[in-house]
Amino acid sequence: MKLAVADLIRERFLTEGACAGRTFPVLNPADGQILAHVPDREPADAEQAIQSAHQAFGTWKKYLASERSVVLRRWYDLIIENLDELSEILTREQGKPFDESKTEIRNGALGLEFAAEEAKRIAGEILTPFRDDARALVLRQPLGVIAAITPWNFPSGMVLRKISAALAAGCTVVCKPAEETPLSALALAVLAERAGVPPGVLNIITTSQPAAVGAVLATHPLVRGVAFTGSTEVGRLLMKQASSTIKKVLLELGGNAPFIIFDDVDIQEAVRGLISSKFRNSGQTCITANRIFVHEAIYNDFVASFVPEVQKLRLGNGLEPGVTQGPLINQTALRKVEEHVVDAVRKGAKIVTGGKVSALGGTYFEPTVLVDVPLNALLMSEETFGPVAALTRFRDEQDVIAQANDTHQGLSAYFYTRDMKRIWRVSEALESGMVGVNTGAITSAYIPFGGVKQSGLGREGSHHGIEEYTELKYVLMGSIDT
Ligand code: NAP
User: Fold this and answer.
1) Cα(34)–Cα(47) distance, rounded to whole angstroms?
2) CB 318 within 8 A of CB 96
3) In terms of CB atoms within 10 Å, which end of the chain has fewer, N or C?
4) CATH code of the domain made up of 257-445
5) pLDDT tens sequence across 257-296
6) What is the residue with the minimal CA distance to atom 40 of ligand 1?
């Protein structure tokens, strides 16, 4: 069933709720135009959504796994059928190039397909008997109502990752998408409804009051799990709030990825890997290369090969053919990127290409390469979240590992080398949840995505990601006469 973009943009109120018709606008970052208005939900609406998710949990958890699987599979089919329309909505509200939107949605849908299949394999155990008169079982049961709070940088991917795993496990969901990008979540919900996801199983709450609505989601006694992707700062707050009712928390937080290039590599291959890691979504990804360490023996050659490739990137409206770099999400993001570049230059870094707001205006920032960036620059200690490659040189393996690990974040890390012994040494030494060896692209629906240290708790994707939405129950059956 193919729908038009207009049918997928849900502005109308399904239920009036406490916000009494109040809305907020959704803007296109490419030109600042208003795309749509969505309901500006109040904390009382969150309460109502939690109640309906709780009610629906009573029936959804009793569906046979095979029945849940069929519904999720139908949702997957509808997403694939409407891929172009969903991608257009995503590009319009988020800014990324149309092909990147398609990749994001296709990957999210693959996660949904995986969850639909895996729903049938969520199993318990029968333990080896430890008493003659009893047998012990372990049941794996759904957690209950899940609050899912998602960011703007992957408006479909992050929503699908959480909802597909939670629904497959038998949980129901109240999802609060990011303020800048609620249309993708709403469009996915339109298709979920058509796929047969029963009322109350999936609830989308759009709001311009994230703190007030978030507090209800994170403290309500009927919510049994909080699944959050976003900044470490908000993750910390949600964890604190969730502790009041001892909820399970699943946190996918900020990164500060090191990207290390040793001196034994094929430089062109490493350049391609760095381009794909650094400039996807204009650098607005949690796993983007943030600190780039290049061995001093190949530093100049690497810079000479890398810069022309960066200069080939094309800024513009993501719906225009050939555009590889969209605008940044908003003015705050733009100011942060600018501030990081100015700070680095003040501390001794040199701009080789880019380095400023684009002549296109708005929130477009030129793809930028900075060399000789000192370790005390903001670019090296904070997530820049923009199209800025910050290069610095290193000499010694132990030193560069220590520098790579010198951060509170630990989401992803990358390195290039051909030395097999070093591959193992460095992979094991890097303090991060995910490591890319000789590649800059590590994500997939089939892998356990997540971080260590202050980059998060738990994993999304793969069977590990589905188990996060379950809990174990031990049952001892006594009076067994054997
Ligand atoms: P953010 O400010 O933390 O926002 C994320 C979500 O939390 C949004 O829906 C936001 O709503 C909501 N929120 C904000 N304040 C809240 C509060 N007090 N209580 C409850 N919810 C609240 O992060 P962002 O700027 O959107 O996203 C960028 C960050 O996400 C980066 O740090 C990036 O690394 C991280 N990220 C991590 C992963 C991962 O998998 N580890 C993936 C993608 C992004 P509003 O939109 O209304 O503010």
Assistant:
1) 29
2) yes
3) C
4) 3.40.309.10
5) 999 999 999 999 999 999 999 999 999 999 999 999 999 9
6) 252
